[in-house]
């Protein structure tokens, strides 16, 4: 494999009675980032966890925290997440009408900026911002819940995102989120993904560290 694939376990699938163990497991594993899903019950039908949890996780986590904001007007919370010490802030294209302004602001604060696309949102809406962002997050399920099946059409979107990135000279990484498992990971990487988010397939595995290892070396 010429480029290493990065693995970002999603804490959403961990046992919330034992979050410290889950974070320690990620610290000790071959995982590259820790993915944190923030849901508000408005942008998505579900509510996950918020600032107090992220604050506690931040005290223990040694890996970059990759925060996926599934909330309306995500710009309202850029400062708060910066103060909590997160490394990447990912806003949904569908949730913010001034992405350009907020991507610049996230950068000014010294964080990496990502833009996420719902399954129905075409990749080409990123054409005038892709050169400015660090992460393109392709949602391969409808956001809101862990444990859903990978939407096969996402593979076309990953290829389109890769083309757009190459054409525009963008340095953005392609992150794929939802339904990633050992059966589809190779195809997803071959389509152009740089980062795999995996919730259920890591934290519901008998041996999560091994699940991370297997995903990381699937090719
Ligand atoms: C879904 C979240 C995902 C979720 C992935 O809205 O954005 O990050 O945790 O979970 P799995 O890997 O179980 O599909
Ligand atoms: Zn996510």
Sheet with most strands: strand arrangement: 1-8-7-6-5-4-3-2
General form: globular
Series of H and E elements: EHEHEHEHEEHEHEHH
SS strand fraction: 15-25%
Low-pLDDT runs of 5+ residues are none
* Ligands bound to this protein structure: D-xylitol-5-phosphate, zinc ion
The helix content is: 25-40%
The separation of the N and C termini measures 7 Å
Largest sheet: 8 strands, parallel
Question: Count of DSSP helices?
Answer: 8
What is the structural class? alpha/beta
Radius of gyration, whole Å: 16 Å
Q: What's the total number of strands?
A: 8
Average pLDDT, to the nearest integer?
98
Could you describe the 3D structure shown?
The structure is a single chain. The chain has 219 residues and is of the alpha/beta class. Helices cover 32% and strands 19% of the residues. The chain has 8 helices and 8 strands; from the N terminus they run E-H-E-H-E-H-E-H-E-E-H-E-H-E-H-H. The protein has helices at 19-28, 51-60, 78-83, 99-108, 154-168, 185-191, 200-203, 208-216; strands at residues 6-9, 34-39, 65-70, 88-92, 112-117, 135-139, 173-177, 195-198. An 8-stranded parallel β-sheet has the order 1-8-7-6-5-4-3-2. Helix 6 (185-191) links the parallel strand 7 and strand 8 (195-198). The N and C termini lie close together (7 Å). Bound molecules: D-xylitol-5-phosphate (DX5) and zinc ion. D-xylitol-5-phosphate binds at residues 10, 12-13, 35, 37, 68, 141, 143-148, 177-180, 197-201.
């Amino acid at each position: 494999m010429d480029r290493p694939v990065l693995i970002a376990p999603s804490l959403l699938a961990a046992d919330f009675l034992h979050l410290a163990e889950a974070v320690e497991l990620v610290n000790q594993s071959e995982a590259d980032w820790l993915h944190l899903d923030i849901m508000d019950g408005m942008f998505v039908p579900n509510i996950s966890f918020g600032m107090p949890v992220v604050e506690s996780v931040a005290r223990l986590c040694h890996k970059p925290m990759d925060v996926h904001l599934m909330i309306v007007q995500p710009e309202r919370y850029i400062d708060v997440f910066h103060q909590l010490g997160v490394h990447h802030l990912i806003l949904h294209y569908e949730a913010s009408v001034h992405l350009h302004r907020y991507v610049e602001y996230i950068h000014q604060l010294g964080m990496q900026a990502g833009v996420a696309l719902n399954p129905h949102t075409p990749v080409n809406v990123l054409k005038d911002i892709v050169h400015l962002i660090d992460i393109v997050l392709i949602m391969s399920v409808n956001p809101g819940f862990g444990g859903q099946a990978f939407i096969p059409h996402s593979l076309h979107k990953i290829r389109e995102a890769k083309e757009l990135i190459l054409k525009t000279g963008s340095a953005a990484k392609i992150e794929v989120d939802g339904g990633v498992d050992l059966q589809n990971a190779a195809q997803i990487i071959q389509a152009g993904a740089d980062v795999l988010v995996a919730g259920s397939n890591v934290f519901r595995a008998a041996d999560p560290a091994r699940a991370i290892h297997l995903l990381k070396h699937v090719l």
